[in-house]
């Protein structure tokens, strides 16, 4: 960014003397005089009157000084803002995902990132995988965590940057006949009320396909989007449910118990972190992506 002629001009105007201005700028007087002549030729007017004591602004010079000061100020603000972004002192990140991603995978990563870079603002959107993929395509989101395949028009422009296997585990009410077990069979659910995710969501499709393959029709008595809502309804005795392994404790807790794995075949889905293939992430988004991928590596092994 060539702002040197303007800086030279402003310095001359402030010092009102070519020699003093040259000393202030750390250049020779002939070099400063030559730069001023080129600037005056470019603007098409004399900017200074030469006097016995030094120089004085002409009318054109006074007008030019107002604009030169403004240009330099704005340029310095722009440079400072860009440096702050590059240094992760400020900026914003928009990320989205389903209930598992926004409720269990993203919070610890966002929390750690915010501790390191408090000036970064976050927008976290919970939505279905298709909606998240569309938002990443449109540029509304920097990153998305979706169940794959998330087929959307223009999906070829999306790039998976990491993948993660998620297993769905059965949760049952306290005192339930399956309580205390480590596994279940689909036949165990034939007489059970089932609390499920909303029809049409990616995770519900995984569950429906697995139950249909096993020859079992689930008696869905309630549909919810929130994993915590499903857990609360199951705890209240409304029915049984299937939720992500990431939403359950590793060991038994006072209010929660680990989920039951399906003995007829693990119920799994693939999650992917996606972004646009043709878009270079901002410094903040790139740093967050790296931290997220590192976090997901640590959570890849199912228990």
Describe the structure.
- This protein is of the alpha/beta class.
- It contains 9 helices and 12 strands.
- Helix 7 links the parallel strand 8 and strand 9.
- The radius of gyration is 32 Å and the shape is rod-shaped.
- The two termini are 55 Å apart.
Estimate the helix proportion, in percent.
40-55%
The beta-strand count equals 12
Strand content: 15-25%
Order of helices and strands: HHHEEHEHEHEEEEHEHEEEH
How many domains make up the 3D coordinates?
3
Q: What is the mean pLDDT?
A: 89
Class by alpha and beta content: alpha/beta
Spatial strand order of the main sheet: 4-3-5-12-6-10
- How widely separated are the two ends? 55 Å
The CATH class assignment of the largest domain is Alpha Beta
Taken from the alpha-carbon principal axes, the silhouette is rod-shaped
Low-confidence runs of at least 5 consecutive residues: none
Number of helices: 9
List keywords for this structure.
303 residues; D-Maltodextrin-Binding Protein, domain 2; 3 domains; 12 strands; six-stranded mixed sheet; Arc Repressor Mutant, subunit A
Give me a quick take on this structure:
By secondary structure, this protein is an alpha/beta fold. It contains 9 helices and 12 strands. α1 crosses α2 and α2 crosses α3 (29-43).
How would the blueprint of this fold be written?
Layout (H helix, E strand, L loop, with lengths): L3 H12 L2 H8 L3 H15 L4 E3 L4 E3 L1 H28 L4 E7 L1 H18 L3 E7 L2 H10 L4 E6 L9 E14 L11 E2 L8 E5 L4 H12 L5 E6 L2 H9 L5 E4 L16 E2 L5 E9 L6 H15 L6
Parallel strand pairs: 3-4, 3-5, 7-11, 8-9
Antiparallel strand pairs: 1-2, 5-12, 6-10, 6-12
